[in-house]
Amino acid sequence: LGWKFYDADDYHPPENRKKMAEGIPLNDEDRIPWLCALHDILRREYTSKQDVVLACSALKKMYRRVLISGASAIESNQPEQQGENPALKILFAHLDGPRDIIAGRLEKRRGHFMPPELLKSQFDTLEPPTAPENFITVSLEKSLPEIVLEIESAIL
């Protein structure tokens, strides 16, 4: 696509990385400042008219609202925001698949701060996107080229 790419894991503060490395799941209080920082990146790129791809485990509906509208989404509980900072238009690609496939991929990952043991907590936290959220669901049982093509087709 020629778009900028951001990996949300690169923006976790040291406290979050340490917690996950110790096998302790993150909670909302850990994640909200991180998601607000990611929103700020997306807002900056939007203002610069730069399209981006953000790889992010936005597990809950509230987390996705924060990515769209920033901290104001927490207080208002609404994704839409009026005024000088309207809500960002984001297409969420929900990568869905059996736990064993995801666990196998995590086991192969080297040098990452999140151990595979935290996968259960990720599934426990997960609120799959639903209407009216702007999303597509893509099966992880497909090949990587098929996954990429499906996401590209939805974007374009």
TrEMBL record:
SUPFAM superfamilies found in the cross-reference section: P-loop containing nucleoside triphosphate hydrolases
Pathway: Carbohydrate acid metabolism; D-gluconate degradation
Keyword Acetylation: no
Cited InterPro entries: P-loop_NTPase, Therm_gnt_kin
Catalytic activity: D-gluconate + ATP = 6-phospho-D-gluconate + ADP + H(+)
Protein name in UniProt: Gluconokinase
Signal peptide range: none
The protein's Enzyme Commission number: 2.7.1.12
Organism superkingdom: Eukaryota
Biological process according to GO: carbohydrate metabolic process
Keywords, comma-separated and alphabetical: ATP-binding, Kinase, Nucleotide-binding, Transferase
Assigned protein family: Belongs to the gluconokinase GntK/GntV family.
GO cellular component, one term: cytoplasm
UniProt enzyme class: transferase
GO-annotated molecular function: ATP binding; gluconokinase activity
CDD domains named among the record's database cross-references: GntK
